[in-house]
Amino acid sequence: MLSKQISVFIENREGRLGEVLSVLRENGVNILSLSLADTSDYGLLRIIVDKPEEGSKALKEKGFSAKVSDVLIVEINHEVGALSHLMEKLAKAGVNIEYMYGLSLHGETASVIIKTKDYQKVQEIMKK
Amino acid sequence: MIWSKNETLSREELEKIQFERLIDTVNTVYEKVPYYRDKMIEAGIKPSDIKSLKDLQKLPFTTKQDMRDTYPFGLFAVDKDELVRIHASSGTTGKPTVVGYTKRDLDTWTECVSRIACMGGAEKSDVSQICFGYGMFTGALGLHYGLENIGSAIVPSSTGNSEKQIMYMKDFETTLLVATPSYALRLAEVASSMGVDIKKELKVKKAVLGSELMTDAMREEIHKVWGDDVLVTSNYGMSELMGPGVSGECEYLDGMHINEDFFIPEIIDPKTGEVLPIGEKGELVITCIFKEALPLIRYRTKDITRLFYEKCKCGRTFCRMENLSGRSDDMLKIRGVNVFPSQIEEVILGVSELGPHYEIVVTREGYTDKLEIRVELKEMTDEYKELERISKKVNSRLKTVLGLDAKISLVSPNTLQRFEGKAKRVKDLRGDK
C-alpha cells in the first residue's frame, strides 16, 4: 500500500524532538509509526501519521523543515523468516531499498515501511 | 532623475571646486583644530604647501583612534554654539565616536542624501518607509531629511515590530523601502508568515539599502522575495564623514557615485599608506571638503574598494567606487588565510537549498583555527545523502574560494538570529586574535 510519510529535519539539540511532537499534538495529528536516526549534528525524523498533509503544514508554519514523500507499507506474516523472504524476493527483482522501518503488529501480521524508487515493482511482487 | 547639476560637472570644473574647498578646509583645521595643527607641524606641512589636489597626499591621515583620543569634541572646527545636531556611533568597543553638524552641515547632508535617493529612483510621489533605527545612529535621520527634501512622504517606522512594519507598508502603500539588506530579507519573511503576498499586496518598487555591504548574491535574494521589478540599490556613508550620502548606486547598478564636490576619495595600500594608482583595490580614504563642524582630513574608512572615473550611462560624471569587498575590520584571519565574510555569503547564497541567513563561528582547538558555518536548510529532503550532498557542496565551494576547510552545520529555518540594524554574523571565539 502506498502511503505518505512526513520527514522533519531536527538539529541535535535538547527538546527539539519534543517541539515537533507537541506541534502534532496541538493539531490532533496521530502518529502511527516513527523512525529517528541521527548523525552527530542533526537527525531526520520520519513519521507515518493519520493526517500527513495537515501535519506537514502545521510543522512548516512553526518553522520546521518538513516534507511529505511517498513510501510503501508492506504487510507480512508475523513469523520467523517472513521479512527475510520478502527481502529475497525484492533483491531478485532488483529492487533497491533506500531505508526501512517497522510499523506495528496486528495479531497474525506485521508491517514494514519501505522507501524505494521501485515501488511499482514491489507492489506487483506482493500481488503474486 | 539627476538631483543636482553638480553631478554632471566636467572633471576640470569639478577639480576647480574641489581645490578651492580643500584649501579652505586645510586652512580652517590648521587655524581652529590644535590636534590637526600639531599633526601637520609634526609632518612638516603648512597649509601653503598645498598647491594642487595632488598635494593632498602630503597631509597626515585621520583615524578612528584620533577621534577617540579627542573625545568628544577635540576635532571640531567650530564653537559648540554653532552646532545644531550631535550624533554618535555605536562604539561597540570603548567610547563612541562623536560627530557634530552646523546648520550648513545639515543642509549639505540633506543635499547629499537627496542625490543618493534620486539615484535609487526616489520621487516626490513616493511613500518612503524608513526602517533604520532612529536615534544616535545617523542612518535614519540622514535618509529622512534627504527623502523629505525630495518631497516624498516619510513613514519613520524605525526598526522593530516587523508585523506592524508590514501593516504600515500595506495600508500606507509604501513604494520605497529604506533598510539594511538583511532587514529587507527579514521583513519579507515576516510578511510571508503573516500570509501577505509581497509581490501582489505590497507596492514597494524601490529599495534604498545601506549601512551594511550588499553582495550581488544578496541583491538577487532580495529580488527573489520582493520582486524582479524592484530597483534595489545600495548606498554608502559613515557617521564620521557625515552619515549616509557619501556615495550611492544609480539605476545602472555599476558602482556607487561619490559626491565628489563634498568628498575627495583616495585609495591607499592599508599597510604602507601609499596612494595606489587609479583602478587598484585598497582602503578608501576620504577627505571632507565642505564640512564646518567636523572636517576630517584623509579619514581612513577601513573599507576595501576601488575607484573608477569613466562617465556613467546615467550621465553623472562623479567617480564611482566598486561595491565594497569588505572592511579591513571585518576581515578574519583563519589559519593564516584572509577571509571576508562577504566571500562566505556569496557561496551560501549560491546554493538554492539554503536560506540567506548564516552565522560564521571561528574557534581554536589547540593551535588550529576551526571555521564553522551555520546555515538554515530551506529545501527539505527525506534522505541523509541529500543533506550530506548539500553540506559537501558548500564545503567544496568554500574550499575553492577561500582555500579553507569549513564545517557546515545545517539548522532548521528561522533558528538563526535576525537583525534589524547591521547584521553581526561573525562569532570569533578565539581568545587571542
Q: Quick gist of this model?
A:
Chain A is an alpha+beta fold and 128 residues long. Chain A contains four helices and six strands, in the order E-H-E-E-H-E-H-E-E-H. Helices cover 32% and strands 44% of the residues of chain A.
Report what the structure shows.
The complex is a heterodimer of chains A (128) and B (433). Chain A has 128 residues and is α+β, with helices and mostly antiparallel strands. Chain A has 2 domains: 2-69, VC0802-like (2-Layer Sandwich), CATH 3.30.2130; 71-127, Alpha-Beta Plaits (2-Layer Sandwich). Helix content of chain A is 32%, strand content 44%. In chain A, strands 2-3-1-4-6-5 form a 6-stranded antiparallel beta sheet, with helices on both faces. In chain A, a hairpin with a 2-residue loop joins strand 5 and strand 6. The longest helix of chain A has 11 residues, at 16-26. Chain B has a 9-stranded mixed beta sheet with strand order 4-3-5-6-7-8-9-14-13. Chain A binds chain B through residues 5, 7, 9-11, 16, 37, 39, 41-42, 44, 46, 63-67, 69, 98-99, 115, and chain B through 377-378, 380-384, 387, 409-415.
Give me some keywords for this one.
heterodimer, A: 128 residues, B: 433 residues, Rossmann fold, GMP Synthetase, Chain A, domain 3, 2 domains, nine-stranded mixed beta sheet, four-stranded antiparallel beta sheet, 25% strand, globular
> Mean pLDDT of chain B, nearest integer?
92
Main β-sheet, spatial strand arrangement of chain A: 2-3-1-4-6-5
Overall mean pLDDT score of chain A?
87
* CATH-assigned homologous superfamily of the largest domain in chain B: ANL, N-terminal domain
Listing every helix as H and every strand as E from the N terminus to the C terminus, the arrangement of chain A reads EHEEHEHEEH
- The CATH architecture category of the largest domain in chain B equals 3-Layer(aba) Sandwich
Largest interface pair: A-B, 21 and 15 residues
Class derived from helix and strand content of chain B: alpha/beta
Look at the helices and sheets of chain A and give the structural class.
alpha+beta
Outline the biggest β-sheet of chain B.
Answer: 9 strands, mixed
CATH homologous superfamily (4th level) name of the largest domain in chain A = VC0802-like
> Would you identify the CATH architecture of the largest domain in chain A?
2-Layer Sandwich
Q: In angstroms, what separates the terminal alpha carbons of chain A?
A: 14 Å
Kindly report the CATH topology of the largest domain in chain B. Answer: Rossmann fold
Gross morphology of chain A is: elongated
